């Protein structure tokens, strides 16, 4: 799952990024409202963690503008404001949840998973499957013919994204953005290496993961 973090405090951003990456989320972090709106509009995120106190605007305004623009990604607002009026204001602005600082990371993680499970139009079925392959997005378990596989965090994100787009073409650009958070350029052989790793770990089911020469990759049983 892809999560956008919007917080101007470098220490908080670092904690959130490292913690979510350890839980196998693909994370993008930005420090201000302008970057947040640009990323949220351009990216296909499963959830947004949005701080209320930002340098250029407040998070309430950002949330409201995203909803006006038709961005329906689930939003959890993070803030040091504990007053009931502030929580109500956040929810009225279009937020789906509101968590006051300081918070336990375990609570944030539980709320985030609940938020994405009930996400509006995101494709968030608990289990993605194609042929003998099953991937449980919440338990973070992958099986082939009911046998569990051991995947790295990157391999898991790669398979998750390919399964969401099963039988459709997934371009190298899309993989670079959604699996590596654009840290890897589309032409990098890192993508090819991880495709090879994943095919090998899938065993006989690896034949379902096909290269579309000059275009990208697809998971399909079609000949």
Describe the protein's topology:
Elements: E1 2-6, H1 10-22, E2 26-30, H2 33-42, E3 47-51, H3 59-68, E4 75-79, H4 84-92, E5 97-100, H5 105-117, E6 127-130, E7 133-136, E8 141-144, E9 147-148, H6 153-164, E10 170-171, H7 172-178, H8 189-202, E11 209-212, E12 216-219
Parallel strand pairs: 1-2, 1-3, 3-4, 4-5
Antiparallel strand pairs: 6-7, 7-8, 8-9, 10-12, 11-12
Helix pairs in contact: 2-3, 6-8
What does this structure look like?
This protein has 223 residues and is of the alpha/beta class. 39% of the residues lie in helices and 22% in strands. The protein contains 8 helices and 12 strands. It has helices spanning 10-22, 33-42, 59-68, 84-92, 105-117, 153-164, 172-178, 189-202; strands at residues 2-6, 26-30, 47-51, 75-79, 97-100, 127-130, 133-136, 141-144, 147-148, 170-171, 209-212, 216-219. Helix 2 (33-42) runs parallel beside helix 3 (59-68) and helix 6 crosses helix 8. Residues 120-124 have low confidence and may be disordered.
């Amino acid at each position: 799952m892809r999560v956008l973090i919007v917080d101007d405090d470098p220490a908080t951003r670092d904690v959130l990024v490292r913690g979510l990456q350890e839980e196998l989320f693909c994370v993008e972090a930005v420090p201000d409202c302008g970057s947040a709106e640009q990323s949220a509009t351009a990216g296909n995120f499963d959830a947004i963690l949005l701080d209320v106190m930002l340098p250029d605007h407040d998070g309430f305004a950002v949330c409201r503008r995203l909803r006006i623009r038709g961005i329906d990604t689930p939003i959890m607002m993070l803030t040091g404001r504990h007053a009931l009026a502030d929580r109500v204001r956040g929810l009225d602005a279009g937020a789906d949840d509101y968590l006051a600082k300081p918070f336990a990371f375990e609570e944030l993680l539980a709320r985030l998973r609940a938020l994405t499970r009930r996400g509006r139009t995101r494709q968030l079925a608990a289990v993605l499957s194609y042929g003998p392959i099953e991937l449980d997005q919440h338990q973070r378990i992958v099986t082939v013919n009911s046998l569990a596989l051991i995947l790295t965090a990157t391999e898991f994100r790669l398979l998750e994204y390919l399964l969401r787009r099963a039988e459709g073409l997934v371009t190298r650009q899309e993989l670079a953005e959604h699996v590596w958070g654009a840290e890897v350029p589309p032409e990098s052989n890192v993508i090819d290496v991880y495709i090879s790793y994943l095919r090998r770990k899938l065993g006989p089911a690896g034949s379902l993961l096909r290269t579309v020469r000059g275009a990208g990759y697809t998971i399909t049983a079609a000949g």
